Amino acid sequence: MRKHLLLALMIVVTLLTAAGFLFSLYAFRAQEEAMDSMMRSYVVDLAENFAGGAAMGRGMPQRHRPMGQMRFRMLSTDASLRNGGAGGVLLIGQDGRVAAASPGAEKLLFLRTRAEFSDEPEKVRGDDGNDYYVAKRGLEDGSYILAAVSRTVLIAPLAGIWRTWILTAMATSAAIFLGMILLWRYLAVPLRRIAERIRGMRWGKDHPPALYSGPLYELESLSAVIGTLAEEAFAKEELKKRYVTDLVQAEENTRRHLARELHDGPLQSSVAAIKRIQLAKEALPPQAGELRRHLDTAEDVVQTAAREIRDYCDELSPSWIRLGLASAMQENADRLSRAYEGLVIDVDVDEDLDVLSEESSLALVRIFQEAVSNSARHGGASSVRAALKKEGDAVHFTIEDDGGGFDAGPASGTDFELLRTTGHRGLANMNERVRLLGGTMKLESSPGQGCRIDIVFPLAREESTAAPA
């Protein structure tokens, strides 16, 4: 509901504005019709009243007829209503001469040829451009009454007030309607586009796109502020990525250094000790059986220590990484199965992924080692399944176990700082390596339901190009 609240409010205001505009238009037309009806009724009343007055004075000489009966009272006291400008009444004899008239009505004589005898008044346009309502009534002696009123002059002030009010209301409604259109076009739509672009941004991973370019300074300022925040997030993420890269590089360098020290020191000493024990055994007389057994035991102990040192060297500075990702994953799966007795590890790797660089392959193997270690030591899992699949220009890495699981709510795999502070250092290390690959890690787990890790990262351009079709 909140998502469409602004749109709903604008629709309501627009509908109310449109209703106001239509009502004003209806009122304007109704007012025009009411004025028209009033003028028609008025001119008919004038004609009938004048005809009655003429009948009363028909027995008197013309000069003795009461002129009060020949005149009519208009609706205004304006001077134009007393000099015939607003209309008048004429009594025209059989010979076509004016027998009696209201003041100034003689100027209306041109209407007698434009109007017909009728019970209903006619609307006639005069030479002066005014609209007249005309009524012609015949009398028994052959004369007739011509009554006419000017709509333009008579009700011009009243009609002007009504027209101004109605047109103002219509103009206001139209302005509000236009304002709603402009508000939607230049404010609501850009805000929606800004929100969509912000939702589509990968904060800290991409440079911010241009959010807005338009006439509104406020939106441009908002876009600039958001762009600044996005740039700062990107710079912070790049700094963090370099920091993590340095940490991982330092870790791998330390591993290689330890592997060399172990290989050149304890391992060589162990090999030399084994050789000396073997030489000592050859020098023993046949009757020294007890001493030979002690030397055999010592040789086995030193052989075991030498194998462990070799394993440590291979773990710290692996030679298997040069065999390709699929072989490296399988080699480590076998090693981990031997290390964690009873743990079944199933690995499925696309052969297309052997094009990955040694750095990427090593990162994936380290993630795999950490995940298996967590499953065995913390989850008590009996089986682990790992799959590495190439999907388009991306790699999907899934690791799933049947262990005891845990509440993954506070460790969603998206914030390695939070993971580190909540005690999941192994998960934090995995996520750091995933971020170095430019990917994302999603963690799903709940008590008693095992654990699943989904990792997606893009193939580098050269790796994607080198992959077989």
Automatic annotation (TrEMBL):
Pfam families cross-referenced by the UniProt entry: HATPase_c, HisKA_3
Name of this chain's protein: Histidine kinase domain-containing protein
GO cellular component: membrane
Keywords from the UniProt entry: Kinase, Membrane, Transferase, Transmembrane, Transmembrane helix
UniProt cross-references to PANTHER family, sorted A to Z: NITRATE/NITRITE SENSOR PROTEIN NARX-RELATED
Molecular function (Gene Ontology), one example: phosphorelay sensor kinase activity
Keyword ATP-binding listed: no
